[in-house]
Every structure is written in C-alpha cells, then in structure tokens.
Write a structure and sequence with these properties.
The protein has about 270 residues and is α/β, with parallel strands linked by helices. It has helices at about 20-25, 65-70, 80-85, 105-115, 130-135, 155-165, 175-180, 230-245, 260-274; strands spanning about 1-5, 30-35, 50, 60, 95-105, 120, 140-145, 215, 220. It has a five-stranded parallel sheet. Strands 3-4 form a two-stranded antiparallel ribbon. Strand 5 (about 95-105), helix 4 (about 105-115) and strand 6 (about 120) form a beta-alpha-beta unit. The longest helix has 19 residues, at about 230-245. It is elongated, with a radius of gyration of 23 Å. The model is unreliable at about 185-195 (pLDDT under 50). The structure holds S-adenosyl-L-homocysteine (SAH). The site of S-adenosyl-L-homocysteine (SAH) has 20 residues, from strand 5.
C-alpha cells in the first residue's frame, strides 16, 4: 500500500511512523509512506497556506489552491473514478480529509482502507479546510472521534497505524489481528486450541495475562493455567461479553451472537441482578 500524507507539519510524522509495526511494514515493503509539505505548493514569498474566512468569524482556513496543486502532483485517479470504483466495490484509491465532521473512523473502515492500493490523507489545521476540498478533491471525510483536535496530523497517524497493522504480513501472526476488539470476524468454536477460537466477533477483546502467575498477591485466573482449551475458550468469550456489556453495550447492536453467547449473556445479566 502507498500512503501519502499532506500536512503543513511534515516533521510531526518523524516519531509516530518510525516505530513498531508501522516502521516494520515499511521496511518489509508492505507500505510506503510519503509525507508532503503543503507549503511546497505555494507560490508567494511567505508560503501562505491559510486565509481569513469568507463571511467573517474566528480563525483562519486552509486555502484550496495548495491542496489541489499538491494532489494534482500525485498522479491519482479522478475523484469521480475513485467514487465510481468504491460504488462498484473495487475501490483502489481513496483521498481522505481528516475532519471532526467526518464519518467515524472504525476497525471496519480500517480494513476497507487496508485493501486499497493507495490512500491520501489530508491534514487540516486552524478552523479547518476550505469546503471545496471536501466537495471536489477528497472522496471521503474521516473523524477519529467526537472531539476536536488542533490538526489532522494525529488523526492521520492513527489511521495509518490502524491500517498498516492490517496489511497481510505486517503483524508477525496474522491471526492476532483477526481476534482483536471490534473485529467482526468470529472464529469457530471447534478450531484447534484456544488461540484460534476467540475472535471478538465485533465485541471487545478478552483479557490477557502473562507471567508471573502470582504478582503482589494478584493471581492469574486459574482456568488459563489448567490447559483445558474448551474451558479457556468459554471463559474468554464470557469475559469479552462481560466487558462489552459493561464498557460498550452499543457494540451488541451489530454483533453476531451464537446461541452459546446468548445463554452466557443471560447468565451474566442474572449474576448482575443477584
Ligand atoms: N472547526 C472545526 C475544527 C477544526 S480543527 C470543527 O469545529 O469541526 C482543525 C483540523 O483538525 C481539522 O481541519 C481536521 O483536519 C483536524 N481534526 C480536528 N478534530 C478531528 C477529529 N476528531 N478527527 C479527525 N481530524 C480532526
């Protein structure tokens, strides 16, 4: 995958992209990330990228011209072609404007993006970006959550990290990214061993423990030590259901629950009432 980031703070990305899985994905050739300095696409002495808002009001707005020029230098398919491809379910490229007003970024969107050949991430600043960028240049607006940041850079780093770790081969064991929180794909109960039997199915992940088994009087649940794979699987699923019920009950709306899950959930709710 090729990712292009358009920003007025190119140095911002030195830290976030130079560590861990993102760095490894680049070193392995799975991802290529290029950061573009928006100011290189200005033509005045002061390299101006912003201007006052039409209609008055607070702050400054990122001007359209440098953004359009920058994107035109990237040799992308036209906006209409990108949108048509997405509608026809064979999207290859996406130009994304990071925006608090965007569609909410999620694990589902991350896997959609991980299947593309190229993503371009436009980072806004100040009061935001001239709306013509959303209307005529980007094919998608994404928000990383219901809060306002000062710029799109952190949001772009979040998107890149969530997407690169889904590229096949980026994480040592591909199964581990399939089992995590929010991942819709649930593993079957009769697969071998506990490692491959605990997909979250769109819920939160189950709790993880490592050595030592006892630490300052805090002990690891006995079931994880006894080596009974079926019991471990059942315990993990119950924990995932319990935690989702407690912290994110909204996730049950879209989750595929088995009969066993429903029974377990009823037991959990009974325990809470007692
Ligand atoms: N006036 C805007 C906020 C602008 S913040 C509003 O009220 O919606 C400046 C820039 O930060 C935005 O252009 C966007 O690129 C980025 N940004 C802020 N919050 C964000 C969020 N939740 N997700 C993604 N990008 C965000």
């Amino acid at each position: 995958m090729k990712a292009d980031i358009v920003t007025i703070f190119p140095d911002f990305f030195r830290g976030p992209l130079d560590h861990g899985i993102t760095r490894r994905a680049c070193e392995m050739g799975l991802a290529t990330i290029e950061v573009h300095d928006l100011r290189q696409f200005t033509h005045d002495r002061h390299r101006t990228v912003d201007d006052r808002p039409f209609g008055g009001g607070e702050g400054m707005v990122l001007k359209p011209e440098p953004l359009f020029e920058c994107l035109e230098s990237l040799d992308l398919a036209s906006r209409q072609a990108r949108i048509d491809d997405r509608v026809a379910s064979h999207a290859r490229q996406s130009v994304i404007l990071l925006s608090a007003q965007g569609e909410r970024f999620s694990q589902k969107v991350a896997s959609e993006l991980a299947a593309l050949e190229r993503i371009v991430l436009i980072c806004g600043r100040y009061e935001g970006v001239d709306e013509r960028v959303a209307d005529f240049l980007a094919d998608r607006e994404l928000s990383i959550g219901d809060y306002v940041l000062s710029g799109g850079e952190l949001a772009a780093a979040v998107v890149i990290e969530a997407v690169t770790r889904l590229l096949p081969g980026a994480v040592g064991n591909d199964a581990s990214t399939r089992q995590e929180s929010f991942t819709a794909h649930a593993e079957t109960a009769d697969a071998d061993g506990p490692d491959s039997t605990c997909g979250s199915g769109g819920l939160l992940d189950y709790p993880h423990y490592t050595r030592p088994a006892a630490f300052r009087g805090m002990v690891v649940p006995e079931v994880l030590i006894n080596g009974n794979h079926q019991e471990i699987r059942r315990w993990r699923r119950k924990q995932a259901l319990q935690k989702t019920l407690r912290n994110r009950p909204d996730l049950f709306d879209g989750a595929a629950l088995s009969e066993e899950d429903k029974k377990c959930l009823a037991e959990i709710k009974e325990d809470v009432v007692e």
